[in-house]
Design brief:
Number of domains: 3
Bound molecules: flavin-adenine dinucleotide
Strand order of the largest sheet: 6-7-5-15-16-17-14-18
Radius of gyration: 21 Å
Low-confidence stretches: none
Number of helices: 10
Order of helices and strands: EEHEEHHEHEHEEHEEEEEHEEEEHEEEHH
Shape: globular
Amino acid sequence: MSLTADVVIIGAGTIGSSTAYHLARQGAGRVVVVEMGRAGSGTSSKSASMLSLQFGHDELMVRMAQRAYARYMQFEEEFGVPIDFRRTGLMVLATEASAAHLRRNAGLMQTLGIPTELLSPEEVKYRYPAIHTEDLELGTFGPDDGVLDAHMVVSGYVSKARELGAQVLEDVRATGIRMDGGRVAGVETTAGYIEAPLVVNAGGPWAIEIGRWVGLDLPILNSARSIVVTQPFPDIPSDWPFVEDVTVEWYCRPEGPGILMGMGAAPTDQTEIPFRREAMDDMFAAAIHRIPVLAKAGILTGWTGVRPMTLDDRPILGPVDGVQGLLLNCGWGGAGVMLSPVAGDLLARYVMTGEAAALEPFRLGRFAGVRTSDIHDLRILARTG
Ligand SMILES: Cc1cc2nc3c(=O)[nH]c(=O)nc-3n(C[C@H](O)[C@H](O)[C@H](O)COP(=O)(O)OP(=O)(O)OC[C@H]3O[C@@H](n4cnc5c(N)ncnc54)[C@H](O)[C@@H]3O)c2cc1C
């Protein structure tokens, strides 16, 4: 196979497939996506599928979440596939250690018009008696947050992108980026060479490796997080919201007849990590502390995924100084599913217009001097003061 394209996207997760759809819709010409597995099989298949307005910690990211949320509310109309959004609400719980942060965040939400209630520990207990509230300082509740089907999201982007003429090549691995002087000439793949003046790195946790092909040390920290789904668990009713204990970064929500819970932020240099039941002690300790009845829960299944984090919890988007033709759409951390409609749109608009102002807060250059190996320590420093 030898192809010529206007844009090649490496990776068909929520971010790459959204980028492909938006480029095709905006008339970017021949758009080719190469995906080494099946579309959506990367970290996008490992998420907790949360669509949240409360997720961001700064105004820019919250506004992005509002735009993404609005797009998701129209997703079925735009893409013709159901994404099964369930408006469960999100309750965040904080002990003294993180109450000030949570209160600030709730204030930001309210200022930006996002319905957010502040709850005392007594109110939390009244609504959800199974929750241990003695050490809590504060709760917040956002009624509009909920859960969607991330597989259907990718499927919607991919099928619409194909309808609009994009090629999404599955089971094709990119193996290198060919350069001509200081600019991108094309992508080497296991199915042959694709000549293209523009290449998008949408590799999720693999973005670091793809960056190295052109000498970039992308400041992304891959961070492992596990999800456990319990056996059917009637003690927690299926109409419970998504509950997050923000102090220990543990969360849970109903999933079918069981409970899904997530936890973990361990730096890793692996991109695929086997799930180990025996390593779930911390997760169960956090679960049992916050919702003691979970001590009776048995594990049905689980998985471990990788979140590509940045230092400021904003993604890295746009061009790269010194590597002409390379575009980044990576570092989406723990929010790449929920923010994907905006992620693809922003990059496609840049390609079509060359107008970089909207990408300014996300550009790689803001991390000048930060190396991948530094981010873990710098993130800890940022949190501890
Ligand atoms: C446990 C967990 C829970 C999460 N919960 C949520 C949540 O509730 N809500 C939310 O919004 N986000 C959540 N996230 C984060 C979210 O999953 C990610 O931000 C998002 O999936 C990133 O999408 P992506 O397209 O950048 O990466 P990916 O989905 O990993 O896509 C990258 C793709 O690139 C492909 N690829 C890589 N290298 C190559 C190559 N050389 N050639 C060809 N293809 C290549 C991979 O196969 C992969 O499919 C969670 C993450 C984890 C791990």
